[in-house]
């Protein structure tokens, strides 16, 4: 077994002196009067709450703990106890933590940049694939542990870096597995949170943690019950708590997952039984009755805690042979509390210097700007927000920090590592809307994001889509400063759209006397803009858009029109929604004002026009528990028309877009539309790595489109519509089944997969 040498990771001189003297005085006195006791806590995920129950019973029996060794969840519980926390404090901590968040690194949507939100809304199949023009690459874990390390920091409080874990309130060791050589590694110094994470890093779910040249993962497969480690520390008597899972009987091996789990159980049980063999007659082995509990069932933490308490109390008669008197135990507890107070920095930090270890293509100035930290008094909560603000760029594998004492300075060290499977990334899109009759719309696409093109974070995003609409587009993003507040975007692309539009004379209307026209648009588009993003949730753009297009009518092979639009514009976007498809709270505004110069060449004739173009769209959502109500509205107008060709028209039709009629079947220069949607969350479906809530809902909708700029309000063909629906927000995107009905007895069923944006 490898034991990591205790290296020169400095702690404050005061802590070193006080901790060392306290340890010498308190424990030396105890050692002369009684045998030392080592607590060994095994791994087992959520079942590890049983360790807390054992600790609670030991405290009630006045049994001191002189050494702690733990693996996986045992390393977490043991690490907290080694900092001087009580069993009750640890139990309350474990019950308050949403452990599933530790396996979800995605930053809240409201904290993302506008351009990233727009991209993810459309390309929602994020596979985390990367490439470097040589090969495709994937990350080493499903998640990278960004939220898990935050949970560990929240649990431990602000601690120094330890030259030795002997300097903790109770001497401590964590056990992990060297994944390269498949041998146990005992972690005895450094950052407590890093030691915990290394011991808890489930292979595949979390990446290996690199410490002193070792790539470390969960220690359960090689030493799940580190009795030998506690004895090596000096324990005369070991109290070991085994929560490992026993083998499944043949009748329970009904799926490939259970068969794979059986292999994992075999490795864990083998290492556990080997360590049990190291125990002697004076040691205690406690096995809480948590065999029916899965390692992921954190909702059963109180139950596991109680099981641990019960097994310890069942062995009370034997355990109390190593108890202290009430007076002795009170002195022991007071000494622990004193050492804990000296060891913790507290919630407010005094930082003399900030060091950023930058292992990315970004300049140091970009990282500093996103962190926005200053020396002096620093609040822990604000520090965590700063770290999340940087991580929200979604270009980093991890952003971590720790405190070091360098001479007389308190130094905050921030380690930033770029995604190792980059620098280029691939996302996918799939969307389908079918009305079970004659109308099917689908879209499949791929997006390639080439990053690291400048120190400030320039990127080239290329997208390709096939389906009802076809598109090829490239967009270059060029930030001008480290803050990325000012930027430029250059876009070029080609797009083909096919539509069946319903008309009476020249107006888009519904009814028995309307006729459908099949139209195909082919357009080449160029757009250049400069932007200002004062906040992550909002941005302004000043730009120029130019497009060349061709319109063909399916019913007339000879009819063809060529058109052109040149338009400077000003736009504003605000987006604080938590979810674009199933919003629970937040707001969305997209407003633009342009001045279009249009020209048309049709049947040998040319015509020109100029007009102002105004578009405004908004969403506001609010929820109350399982109930959500949100409203959406859209208004757009252009005060001119060039012949019979509609250039970049507004489209209406489809689910929640006048439900009941075919998708995008009404289109014109002008639009006015609103909807009120109620949604009830029927099931949460929290699976840890992802959530797939199930919703039921209904909508009321009202709106229409028109071409004639001279129409008064009473002339506009408005329609009333409504829908009922059931939907799942799945990892593959939204899946919705709905029924919609519009006046004039037009109705439709819908089956929808993916985002329709």
From TrEMBL:
Residues 349-419 form the POTRA domain. PANTHER family: NEUROPATHY TARGET ESTERASE SWS (PTHR14226:SF29), NEUROPATHY TARGET ESTERASE/SWISS CHEESE D.MELANOGASTER (PTHR14226). Residues 1-28 form the signal peptide. The gene is rssA_2. GO terms for cellular component: outer membrane. It comes from the Bacteria. A motif (DGA/G) lies at residues 218-220. This is NTE family protein RssA.
């Amino acid at each position: 077994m490898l034991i990591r040498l205790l290296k020169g990771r400095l702690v404050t001189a005061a802590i070193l002196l006080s901790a060392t003297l306290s340890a010498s005085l308190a424990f030396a006195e105890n050692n002369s009067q009684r045998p030392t006791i080592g607590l060994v806590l095994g791994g087992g995920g959520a079942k590890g709450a049983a360790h807390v129950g054992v600790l609670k019973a030991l405290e009630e029996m006045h049994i001191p703990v002189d050494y702690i060794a733990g693996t996986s969840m045992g390393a977490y519980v043991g690490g907290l106890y080694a900092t001087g926390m009580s069993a009750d404090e640890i139990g309350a901590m474990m019950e308050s933590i949403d452990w599933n968040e530790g396996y979800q690194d995605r930053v809240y949507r409201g904290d993302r940049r506008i351009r990233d939100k727009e991209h993810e809304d459309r390309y929602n199949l994020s596979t985390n694939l990367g490439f470097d023009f040589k090969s495709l690459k994937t990350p080493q874990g499903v998640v990278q542990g960004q939220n898990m390390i935050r949970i560990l920091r929240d649990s431990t409080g602000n601690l120094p870096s330890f030259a030795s874990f002997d300097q903790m309130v109770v001497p401590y060791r964590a056990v992990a597995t060297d994944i390269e050589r498949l041998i146990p590694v005992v972690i005895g110094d450094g950052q407590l949170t890093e030691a915990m994470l290394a011991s808890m890093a489930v292979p595949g779910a979390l990446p290996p943690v690199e410490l002193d040249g070792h790539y470390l993962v969960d220690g359960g497969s090689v030493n799940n019950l580190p009795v030998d480690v506690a004895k090596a520390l000096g324990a005369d008597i070991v109290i070991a708590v085994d929560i490992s899972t026993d083998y499944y009987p043949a009748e329970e091996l009904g799926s490939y997952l259970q068969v794979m789990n059986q292999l994992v159980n075999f490795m864990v049980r083998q290492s556990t039984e080997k360590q049990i063999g190291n125990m002697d007659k004076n040691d205690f082995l406690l096995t809480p009755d948590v065999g029916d509990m899965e390692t992921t069932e954190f909702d059963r933490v109180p139950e596991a805690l109680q099981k641990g308490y019960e097994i310890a109390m069942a062995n009370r008669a034997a355990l109390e042979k190593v108890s202290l008197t009430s007076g002795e135990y009170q002195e022991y507890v007071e000494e622990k509390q004193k050492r804990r107070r000296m060891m913790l920095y507290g919630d407010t930090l005094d930082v003399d210097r900030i060091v950023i270890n930058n292992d990315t293509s970004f300049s140091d100035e970009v990282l500093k700007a996103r962190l926005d930290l200053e020396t002096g008094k620093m609040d822990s909560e604000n520090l965590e927000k700063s770290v999340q603000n940087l991580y929200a760029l979604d270009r980093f594998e991890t952003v971590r920090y720790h405190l070091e004492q360098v001479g007389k300075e308190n130094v905050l060290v921030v380690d930033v590592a770029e995604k190792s499977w980059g620098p280029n990334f691939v996302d996918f899109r799939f969307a389908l809307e079918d009305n079970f009759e004659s109308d099917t719309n689908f879209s499949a696409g791929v997006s390639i994001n080439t990053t690291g093109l400048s120190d400030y974070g320039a990127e080239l995003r290329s997208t390709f889509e096939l389906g009802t609409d076809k598109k090829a587009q490239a967009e270059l993003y060029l930030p001008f400063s480290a803050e990325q507040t000012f930027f430029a975007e250059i876009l070029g692309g080609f797009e083909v759209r096919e539509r069946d539009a319903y008309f009476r004379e020249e107006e888009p209307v519904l009814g028995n006397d309307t006729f459908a026209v099949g139209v195909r648009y082919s357009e080449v588009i160029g757009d250049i803009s400069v932007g200002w993003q004062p906040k992550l949730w909002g941005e302004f753009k000043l730009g120029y858009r130019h497009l060349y297009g061709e319109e063909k009518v399916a019913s007339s092979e000879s009819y063809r029109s060529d058109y052109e639009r040149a338009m400077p514009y000003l736009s504003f976007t605000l987006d604080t929604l938590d979810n674009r498809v199933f919003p629970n709270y937040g707001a969305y505004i997209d407003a633009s004002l342009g001045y279009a110069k249009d020209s048309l060449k049709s049947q040998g004739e040319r015509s020109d026009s100029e007009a102002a173009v105004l578009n405004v769209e908004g969403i506001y959502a609010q929820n109350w528990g399982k109930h959500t109500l949100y409203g959406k509205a859209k208004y757009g107008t252009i005060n001119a028309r060039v012949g019979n060709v509609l250039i970049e028209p507004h489209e209406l039709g489809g689910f929640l877009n006048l439900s009941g009629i075919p998708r995008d079947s009404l289109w014109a220069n002008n639009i006015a539309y609103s909807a009120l949607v109620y949604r009830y969350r029927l099931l949460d479906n929290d699976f840890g790595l992802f959530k797939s809530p199930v919703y039921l809902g209904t909508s009321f909708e009202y709106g229409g489109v028109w071409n004639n700029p001279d129409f008064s309000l009473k002339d506009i063909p408005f329609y009333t519509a409504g829908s009922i629906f059931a939907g799942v927000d799945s990892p593959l995107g939204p899946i919705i089944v709905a029924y919609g009905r519009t006046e004039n007895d037009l109705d439709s069923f819908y089956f929808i997969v993916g985002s329709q944006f």
